[in-house]
């Protein structure tokens, strides 16, 4: 019994050192991705905000100006406040899914903490999300809707929930992709479909029953609604966020479990 306790204590510093090494590696990989993404481009980080802005402009014209879709808040704010977190989600999964398959030389090294590869993609896209938020703030100020103190608690909370959801899905998809490469293309198709069943172009309240209950099974639905309420109305998340929290916890647990089970076999398929 004493020897068992001593063994646990002895492994403690080694485990802490491994976690520290993984965090340092995560930081270095994230910094590398930030440098490489827009390397040799003229506009650089401007493209981070340009992508959701251009998409928003097209959708705004098509739905608001042409089809006359109306919302409680100005439609450009309604749309942009949802497109920013959606772009973070979409780009993270698209880039994270093939990470193990495309970095086989690193992943095949047993001591290498492979999980940092998809997580670095998420961290990188989160930085780009933060750089895009001032664009939304500028539109809010023009509409006389300044950010409130609620952002200080609401933004970190919602960002943590979304990052946990993305981490679970990224670990799950990138692990399965090692054995089933078609998943990369399937994820792209799934994300295109998910865009339309997530309340980005329309409010969840506009969806008739019982379809609204079905849409709530999508963990992004309450999350996007919470982002919009916070960014446009300065309203903190309410009880409606609970389905997203529960589903996010489940997805993170499943993703971590699948990655742990499949990780030992990566070297045989890469």
List the helices and strands and how they pair.
Elements: H1 2-37, H2 46-66, H3 75-96, H4 99-102, H5 104-107, H6 116-142, H7 150-177, H8 183-196, H9 211-215, H10 220-233, H11 242-262, H12 266-269
Structure, explained:
With 270 residues, the protein is mainly α. 74% of the residues lie in helices and 0% in strands. Helix 7 runs antiparallel to helix 10.
Short description:
The protein is mostly helical. It contains 12 helices and no strands.
Order of helices and strands: HHHHHHHHHHHH
Percent helix, as a range, is: over 70%
Query: Got a strand count?
Result: 0
Sheet with the most strands, sense and barrel status: none
Strand content: under 5%
- Silhouette: globular
| Helix count from the secondary structure assignment | 12
Average pLDDT, to the nearest integer?
A: 82
Distance between the termini: 42 Å
Give the C-alpha Rg. Answer: 21 Å
Low-confidence parts lasting 5 or more residues at pLDDT below 50?
1-10
- Secondary-structure class: mainly alpha
Properties at a glance:
270 residues; mainly alpha
